[in-house]
Amino acid sequence: MNRLKFLLLVSCGITGLTVLLAEPVFAYVDPGTGSYVLQLIIAGLVGFAFTLKIFWSRLRVFFQYNILKRKNPPGGPKGEDE
Length: 82
Description:
It is a single chain. The chain is built from three helices and no strands. The chain is mainly alpha-helical. It has a domain at about 30-70. The relative contact order is 0.05.
């Protein structure tokens, strides 16, 4: 855990220095860039929804039986939960 904290501290430090030491830049952002970013966001959401659809039964079983701490998942020993 200490290594994770160290890496987080170093990455935050580098990010902070980059933001503080940045100089003004006069650059042109093409209008197509906004469209591309929007496509990336939509593709990410659709990909997440598809992944959720694929693993829905696994997620349901995980939350139903691990989070709520029931004794037997489906297919386990019969008689206790039924």
